[in-house]
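A.,

Following up on our hallway conversation. Structure tokens first:
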């Protein structure tokens, strides 16, 4: 199955470079490009990509606003692509809000070519591109913002089993599946199963949203150790 990709970035050279790299892959097809968020939304509506590579900072409409429109379309629009945010910094000011809006993760624009190709495949497969090291940086950013727990999210935690709650907490603390398996003395596949159930019960799209949910519900407090 071919992965359909749109590239939204205000730098023509970046778009051209990414397009050339991705189009050279047998399982990836670049179906659209746009120089700003507003055009990116329009192109996304017409080309129906599986994955959108979305620059964070752009004129006309920034990547955050564009991601929100693509991921929360108006009535009558059913297509929702996966959105992978592109940023120059490890934790851009907009990254946390992008994850809350439903983006599947983010990638540094100067990442090695192999990482970009792998990222597109990972996100297209329904996984979140949120490496443990990036999660930990996101946690630091969250701690600096200090939002208060949301009551309705705290109530939703009651639907999880004790083990599922434990797994969610470790995911939010930045542990990989392998690290969680080792800490809880479980098979890695069992950890994946627990994470899948957590996402289904809480109505979350992926691991990235699970991290945000855990902090907003008050399950995890920034600064605590594992």
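Then the amino acids I'd put at each of the 226 positions:
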């Amino acid at each position: 199955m071919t992965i359909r990709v749109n590239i939204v970035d205000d730098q023509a050279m970046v778009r051209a470079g990414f397009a050339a790299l991705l189009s050279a892959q047998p399982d990836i097809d670049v179906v659209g490009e746009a120089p700003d968020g507003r055009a990116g939304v329009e192109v996304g509506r017409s080309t129906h990509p599986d994955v959108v590579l979305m620059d964070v900072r752009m004129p006309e409409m920034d990547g955050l606003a564009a991601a929100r429109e693509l991921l929360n379309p108006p009535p009558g629009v059913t297509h929702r692509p996966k959105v992978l945010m592109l940023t120059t910094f490890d934790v851009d000011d907009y990254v946390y809000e992008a994850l809350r809006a439903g983006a599947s993760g983010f990638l540094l624009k100067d990442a090695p070519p192999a990482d970009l190709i792998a990222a597109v495949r990972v996100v297209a497969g329904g996984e979140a591109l949120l490496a443990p090291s990036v999660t930990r940086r996101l946690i630091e950013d969250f701690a600096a913002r200090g939002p208060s727990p949301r009551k309705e999210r705290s109530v939703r935690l009651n639907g999880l089993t004790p083990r599922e709650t434990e797994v969610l907490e470790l995911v939010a603390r930045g542990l990989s599946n392998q690290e969680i398996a080792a800490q809880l003395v479980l098979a890695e596949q069992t950890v994946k199963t627990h994470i899948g159930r957590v996402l289904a019960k809480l109505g979350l799209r992926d691991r990235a949203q699970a991290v945000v949910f855990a902090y907003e519900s008050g399950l995890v407090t920034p600064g605590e150790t594992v």
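The chain has a mean pLDDT of 85. Curious whether your intuition agrees with the design.

B.
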